[in-house]
Amino acid sequence: MREKVVGNPIGRIALFLRDKLRLIHTAYFHPESAGKSANDHLSNVLIARICQSNKTFIDIGAHIGSILSQVLYVDPSIKMIAVEAIPAKVDALKRLYPSIELHNCALGDFSGEVPFFVNTRASGCSSLSKPAGNKAGEVVEITVPMKKLDDLVSSNDVDVIKIDVEGAELSVLRGATTLLKKNRPTIMFESVLQSDGESAHAKEELHDFFISNNYAIVVPNRLAHHDPGLSKEGFLESHLYPRRTTNYFAIPQERRVEIRDRCRKILNIAIN
Description:
Layout: H1 2-5, H2 9-29, H3 34-47, E1 56-60, H4 66-74, E2 79-84, H5 87-96, E3 101-104, E4 106-107, E5 112-119, E6 139-147, H6 149-152, E7 158-163, H7 169-174, H8 177-183, E8 186-190, H9 202-212, E9 215-218, H10 232-237, E10 247-252, H11 256-266
Parallel strand pairs: 1-2, 1-7, 2-3, 4-6, 7-8
Antiparallel strand pairs: 5-6, 8-10, 9-10
């Protein structure tokens, strides 16, 4: 259903109302998770508007193009690069957005071919990790190219990167170190506790990567405020139920004030 409405005005309104109704439903029936739902909604609002005009936005794990559509609707001058591993999703994105730069591959810290596991019931949960104990017929294994982002993108104006790759975020980042050093983009990444195929220390390693590259990890509702970023202990704690958020923002330390003020403008918060 979502694939049919993404990219048109009625679809944007429908998805916006759906998100609002989810917030209300969660607040009423699962109040302990209301903070997480609010942060998830806020992350979508910010990621669609945070990129500077005429700069490049990279959507890694573009899926059906919902974020891509929002960004282009807000500012058509933004140059979009989309990466998606599932061929059928890529074909659909090509039809919807024939002018964007689109790569049909998985991203990681090496080049080659890898197995990719397509969840036929929830394609957004497809990943490089084989699910444990899945029901017969729910997951289909395909082979896809694996590439490094550094080998795909040589732009000097990458301002924002969104990463949604079901637990493979660190591998994507390790394959993009040159791009990160050269462009210093804002990064929104998904991070939840994975039951399948994830190292027990994966979240610690992810936090260490950002700190070693002089990035601060900030939850969405702190992005427009004075916040130096999560400590390792705070980052790990935020994953416990009820989670603080699904999506986090990694901000270069030297751009923290700039991004804070940009978010304040987006959210109509007075700048003191």
